[in-house]
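Listing S7. Sequence submitted for prediction.
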Amino acid sequence: MDDGIGETAWRCLGRRGMLYSECESFDYARLAPGASLDGRGRDEIEEVWFVLAGEGTYLDAGSGARPVHTGDLLICPQTARGHWRAPFDTPLELLLLAMMPASISRSLPPRAPVS
């Protein structure tokens, strides 16, 4: 993706069919300096974000701006609405673990790898 500010990268590291779990996906994102990323690209999921490298801001519609740094972990419930912003001078690298909320996963049949 190129937002005009610089290159932003997104890589899926695993998807639900590969993981045999309540995990929707496991993703890597790199925001170019000055770029932003909507944190809610998919409905019906809960998110765990880990800041791999850099500093930036997570802007939550309900609680405002939260500065983040390398090593920070943010847990966003299904109802969270926010987005990420990288500073104008350095990139921001993130890992995302997207999971189905318990209200959905409880109604699904058990999943297990096929031998």
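Caption to Listing S7: primary sequence and predicted structure tokens for the chain studied. The chain is about 5% helix and 50% strand. The longest strand covers residues 23-31.
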